[in-house]
Automatic annotation (TrEMBL), chain A:
Its main location: membrane. It comes from the Eukaryota. GO terms for biological process: Golgi to vacuole transport; intracellular protein transport. It is found in: Cytoplasmic vesicle membrane; Golgi apparatus. Belongs to the adaptor complexes small subunit family. Keywords: Cytoplasmic vesicle, Golgi apparatus, Membrane, Protein transport, Transport. It comes from Solea senegalensis (Senegalese sole). The keyword Protein biosynthesis does not apply. Part of the AP-3 complex, an adaptor-related complex which is not clathrin-associated. The complex is associated with the Golgi region as well as more peripheral structures. It facilitates the budding of vesicles from the Golgi membrane and may be directly involved in trafficking to lysosomes. In concert with the BLOC-1 complex, AP-3 is required to target cargos into vesicles assembled at cell bodies for delivery into neurites and nerve terminals. The keyword Membrane applies. Residues 1-147 form the AP complex mu/sigma subunit domain. One of its GO terms (cellular component) is Golgi apparatus. This is AP complex subunit sigma.
From TrEMBL, chain B:
Adaptor protein complex 2 (AP-2) is a heterotetramer composed of two large adaptins (alpha-type subunit AP2A1 or AP2A2 and beta-type subunit AP2B1), a medium adaptin (mu-type subunit AP2M1) and a small adaptin (sigma-type subunit AP2S1). Residues 709-822 form the Clathrin adaptor alpha/beta/gamma-adaptin appendage Ig-like subdomain domain. One of its GO terms (cellular component) is AP-2 adaptor complex. It is a peripheral membrane protein. It is found in: Cell membrane; Membrane, Coated pit. This is AP-2 complex subunit alpha. The lineage of its organism: Eukaryota, Metazoa, Chordata, Craniata, Vertebrata. Belongs to the adaptor complexes large subunit family.
Length: 164, 941
């Protein structure tokens, strides 16, 4: 089972956190910090697996992560999951985000946190994997977007923003 | 076209996020957030009803704020309101907020349940999925009560859309996990299992998680899933990489589903149905074969996916543990990965090998990789991988490689990462104990452990070494010597001081003979560490000091002076002060034998499961150490500890710690008991005599054979006697069998503790003689006598005598005594009467030179005829009258009965009264018997 999915940037700023088990808000923030601390100090080229921090259950759980440019994608899983399988899943997740956002970058995750949650929800539900086929996932997301478009067509257009 | 166009969405939200991002400081960010929270709060509380879009925007802002790590304590109601909206986007944000922010205890659950109920019955698949997601995310008991019966219906209904089925499967799984009592599968079981055959791979993917979980809990009800899983797996494995279209991931068909199918099969034993099993073995072989094929893509994703399946297949092979062929192939494959350039693969290979090491088919194969694994431990840059290497070394360790592995782990400890040191220390301690061939190696290893990683040596580890030393007589002297040497290091760890204090306090006497480690030197060494130690260690040292007073009376004055000084007797710590005061008083008022009783050596610890193993188990969590490993180590432990299967425990340790007189109540008890103990005349001085004679520093281990010769010609009497103990013997023999009664009498008024006796037949004797006995009671009360019966069987003739070793504790000192048991070959004589003519005829028949043994010797005892006759009769032979022409001479005849043969013996003894000499001649059908009898008898007259 996947216990938590965390995305944070190189500075430890959380960009997405999804817990499939209940923790208090405080603990969740501490877990994010602890996980960042564990993952960020690791060199490139080392393996993608490490034991979980104490807060999330210690050595009974594994952190499986990938580092893409400015972002860390971390899945905290128990022993029932295949490590390499989860690595692939992270890749599917990122490729899906990339397709949905067209060259996804950190800003997309910041400004469309709801969308990211929706995409994730098409892949993982209650800590278990729902779908691994990227086309199927994108199809669902597309369908949602169409509905959204039809509903929000009347809202004023968003002016161009300068983001630096 | 991208699915989400940038710039879409809510302007207010985007502006807010930009603002936050532009904040230069944390304070500015908090200020901006508080402003926004106040704004949203006022909007929610305002008179004007908000439209759906505004609600959605504000809820989105709250979500964002929450993600930044700020508490959100309002907005829940607005989110719940969004659930009942007909607009997808509003409903979706509402559900999102609830999934992220509402915990299962929320009071809002009832309202949320209502909205979910509506959406589930809406027949709109998108809404149904949202509702199912929400149930799976929150998963509270209230939700289980409301929906547990509804969801299986949705899952198996014929008209349910695939995407809804997927969500329903995982939703049901979540409810089953939180409230298994509410999810009744009964009627649904078979239809759920058959989801494995569903045409839509997504449905199978979701369903398999559900089926795996249900199978783990109810394996019998779900066992039909095995054959379905095998056939599904077989179809995937044998398909071409294009067959499964979208489920093919970087040229690997459905890797995720394959892994999950292999995991599901790990819930069950190998299939019983031959056809199913054959098909499965074929699948596993195909997977192993594919691993050897050249990759279809250079991308890491391709090899990841392929190897994910491979590792699961290997796990299944290890789980079955019944196909030696596959196990060895798996081991070879993992061996290749051990040196792979991908760190991930090295990591996983080490991990899988750990489980492989426990299989009897592959344990040896795993061991061949020891050098690679040791190298990984030394050179891997990645601590995760090094840790797996350490785990694997631990798993592959057995008697043959224990010394190498323990040495490598010890040297790794010097540079090991702090995070894993404690676990490493535990593992080294366990291996050292489990595979200790000799206990000096064990003691060395643990002391090294304390020296290298003292901070990480938990109490369990140093308790354990003390328990073992106390229980093993043969290592006590060595331990005392080694710990004494270790303490001489200028800076030694406090744990070393603890072990040193304890061991020298108990066994310092064993090395006190050497002037370099004389009592005072020992004491000064310990005391030089005293001031650097924490309170508990100081308390332990004080106990060691009082034990010194008992062991070495000459240190009494020095130690009393130390106890008397203000820093002890007025110490601000209550425990230290109490110990100092009580020990001082005890040492000055108690007589020597009272002191010896109070400060008696620790009794052996009762053996239970190693406390270290328990600690490691606790550390790793349940299930981290397999049951077999535990049983294994228990068995090993028993073997090591000399079959007495002892296993100490922290409680025993602290209990015995408490037996050193620290509470004042103890002291009072001693004082009242003292006169009684001292009452028997000279008991005190007797004790001193014993010490000065045998000396507690060097328990006598030399074999005492004084009594032995007195019993050649008699069967009953006192074998041994000193001031403490008397040993009497009664014995009877018939044919080749004998029975011996040993009587151990405690001559003192004080109890003998840990009284053990051991009869051994050294060397060849064990082939000649069979001696059986039962253990005696370990306590011999003062003045009491206990009895032990030996059953003896003579298998063939013999020359040596069995040894009787007796150990017991009297006062502070261990008494150790070894005696020769008077079991001699002549005991198995049967007398043979014969006439003069027969005698000389046989005498001539035994005329070969080896058959005769002769000795001329001086008389040691009276040459009185009657005395000599009595002795010769006691020998067991028949004394023949009127055979020898010279009436002064004695001739005897007998047959020695052994199990394997009978040995006829003739004897002639010719006394010469003037010269006070004898000539003894023996002729036996077996030469060795002649020799032995001649030796024995030459000392009898």
């Amino acid at each position: 089972m996947i216990k938590a999915i965390l995305i944070f940037n190189n500075h430890g700023k959380p960009r997405l956190s999804k817990f499939y088990e209940h923790y208090s808000e405080d603990t969740e923030q501490q877990i994010i910090r602890e996980t960042f601390h564990l993952v960020s100090k690791r060199d490139e080229n080392v393996c993608n697996f490490l034991e979980g921090g104490m807060l999330i259950g210690g050595s009974d759980y594994k952190l499986i992560y990938r580092h893409y440019a400015t972002l860390y994608f971390v899945f905290c899983v128990d022993s029932s999951e295949s490590e390499l399988g989860i690595l692939d899943l992270i890749q599917v997740f990122v490729e899906t985000l990339d397709k949905c956002f067209e060259n996804v970058c950190e800003l997309d995750l910041i400004f469309h946190v709801d969308k990211v949650h929706n995409i994730l929800a098409e892949m993982v539900m209650g800590g278990m994997v729902l779908e691994t086929n990227m086309n199927e996932i994108i199809m669902q997301v597309d369908a949602q977007n169409k509905m959204e478009k039809s509903e929000v067509s009347w809202t004023p257009p968003v002016p161009c923003m300068c983001m630096t | 076209m991208p699915a989400v166009s940038k710039g879409d969405g809510m302007r207010g939200l985007a502006v807010f996020i930009s603002d936050i991002r532009n904040c230069k400081s944390k304070e500015a960010e908090i200020k901006r957030i508080n402003k926004e929270l106040a704004n949203i709060r006022s909007k929610f509380k305002g008179d004007k009803a908000l439209d759906g879009y505004s609600k959605k925007k504000y809820v989105c802002k709250l979500l964002f704020i929450f993600l930044l790590g700020h508490d959100i304590d309002f907005g829940h109601m607005e989110a719940v309101n969004l659930l009942s909206s007909n607009k997808y986007t509003e409903k979706q944000i509402g559900y999102l907020f609830i999934s992220v922010l509402v915990n299962s205890n929320s009071e809002l659950i009832r309202l949320i349940n209502n909205a979910i109920k509506n959406d589930l019955s809406s027949r709109n698949p998108t809404f149904m999925c949202l509702a199912l997601h929400c149930i799976a995310n929150v998963g509270s008991r209230e939700m289980a009560e409301a929906f547990a019966s509804e969801i299986p219906r949705i899952l198996v209904a014929g008209d349910t859309m695939d995407s809804v089925k997927q969500s329903a499967a995982l939703c049901l799984l979540r409810l089953y996990k939180t409230s298994p009592d509410l999810v009744l599968m009964g009627e649904w079981t078979s239809r759920v299992v058959h989801l494995l055959n569903d045409q839509h791979m997504g449905v199978v993917t979701a369903a398999i998680s559900l089926i795996t979980c249900l199978s783990q809990k109810n394996p019998d009800e779900f066992k039909t899933c095995v054959s379905l899983a095998v056939s599904r797996l077989s179809r995937i494995v044998s398909s071409a990489s294009t067959d499964l279209q979208d489920y093919t991931y970087y040229f690997v068909p459905a890797p995720w589903l394959s892994c999950k199918l292999l995991r599901l099969l790990q819930c069950y034993p190998p299939p019983e149905d031959g056809a199913v099993k054959g098909r499965l073995v074929e699948c596993l072989e195909t997977i192993l074969n594919k691993a050897q094929e050249p990759p279809k893509s250079k991308k890491v994703q391709h090899s990841n996916a392929k190897n994910a399946i491979l590792f699961e297949a290997i796990s299944l092979i290890i789980h079955y543990d019944s196909e030696p062929n596959l196990l060895v192939r798996a081991c070879n494959q993992l061996g290749q990965f051990l040196q792979h350039r991908e760190t991930n693969l090295r990591y996983l290979a080490l991990e899988s090998m750990c489980t492989l090491a426990s299989s009897e088919f592959s344990h040896e194969a795993v061991k061949t990789h020891i050098e690679t694994v040791i190298n990984a431990l030394k050179t891997e840059r990645d601590v995760s991988v090094r840790q797996r290497a350490a785990d694997l070394l631990y798993a592959m360790c057995d008697r043959s490689n224990a010394k190498q592995i323990v040495a490598e782990m010890l040297s790794y400890l010097e540079t090991a990462d702090y995070s894993i040191r404690e676990e490493m220390v535990l593992k080294v301690a366990i291996l050292a104990e489990k595979y200790a061939v000799d206990y000096s190696w064990y003691v060395d290893t643990i002391l090294n452990l304390i020296r290298i990683a003292g901070d990480y040596v938990s109490e369990e580890v140093w308790y354990r070494v003390i328990q073992i030393v106390i229980n093993r007589d043969d290592v006590q002297g060595y331990a005392a010597k080694t710990v004494f040497e270790a303490l001489q290091a200028p800076a030694c760890h406090e744990n070393m001081v603890k072990v040193g204090g304890y061991i020298l306090g108990e066994f310092g006497n064993l090395i006190a003979g050497d002037p370099r480690s004389s009592p005072l030197v020992q004491f000064n060494l310990l005391h030089s560490k005293f001031h650097l130690c924490s309170v508990p260690t100081r308390a332990l040292l004080l106990s060691a000091y009082i034990k010194f007073i008992n062991l070495f009376p000459e240190t009494k004055a020095t130690i009393q002076e130390v106890l008397r000084c203000d820093s002890q007797i007025r110490n601000s710590d209550v425990e230290l002060q109490q110990r100092a005061v009580e020990y001082l008083k005890l040492s000055s008022i108690a007589s020597t034998d009272v002191l010896a009783t109070v400060l008696e050596e620790m009794p052996p610890f009762p053996e239970r499961e190693s406390s270290i193993l328990a600690k490691l188990k606790k550390k790793k969590g349940p299930g981290a150490i397999s049951v077999t490993e535990l049983e294994d180590s228990k068995r090993e432990g028993g073997e090591l500890n000399g079959g007495s299967d002892r296993g100490p425990d922290t409680a025993a340790m602290s209990a015995s710690n408490a037996s050193t007189p620290s509470p004042s109540a103890d002291l009072l008890g001693i004082r009242s008991a003292a006169p009684i103990n001292a009452a028997p005349a000279g008991a005190g001085s007797l004790l001193v005599d014993v010490f000065s004679e045998a000396g507690p520093a060097a328990p006598s281990t030399a074999v005492n054979d004084d009594g032995f010769l007195r019993f050649v010609c008699k069967n009953n009497g006192v074998l041994f006697e000193n001031q403490l103990l008397q040993i009497g013997i009664k014995s009877e023999y018939r044919q080749n069998l004998g029975r011996m009664y040993l009587f151990y009498g405690n001559k003192t008024s004080v109890q003998f503790a840990s009284f053990t006796t051991n009869v051994s037949c050294p060397g060849e004797l064990q082939l000649n003689l069979n001696v059986q006995t039962k253990q005696v009671e370990p306590l011999v009360e003062g003045g009491a006598q206990i009895q032990q019966v030996l059953n003896i069987e003579c298998l063939t003739d013999f020359s040596d005598a069995p040894l009787l070793n007796i150990k017991f504790r009297y006062g502070g000192a261990l008494q150790n005594l070894t005696l020769k048991l008077p079991v001699t070959i002549n005991k198995f004589f049967q007398p043979t009467e014969m006439a003069s003519h027969d005698f000389f005829q046989r005498w001539k028949q035994l005329s070969q030179p080896q058959q005769e043994a002769q000795k001329i010797f001086k008389a040691n005892h009276s040459m009185d005829t009657e005395v000599l006759k009595a002795k010769l009769l006691g020998l067991g032979t028949a004394l023949l009258d009127n055979v020898d022409p010279n009436p002064e001479n004695f001739v005897c005849a007998g047959v020695i009965q052994t199990k394997s043969q009978q040995v006829g013996c003739l004897l002639r003894l010719e006394p010469n009264a003037q010269a006070q000499m004898y000539r003894l001649t023996l002729r036996c059908s077996k030469d060795s018997v002649s020799q032995r009898l001649c030796e024995l008898l030459a000392q009898q007259f």
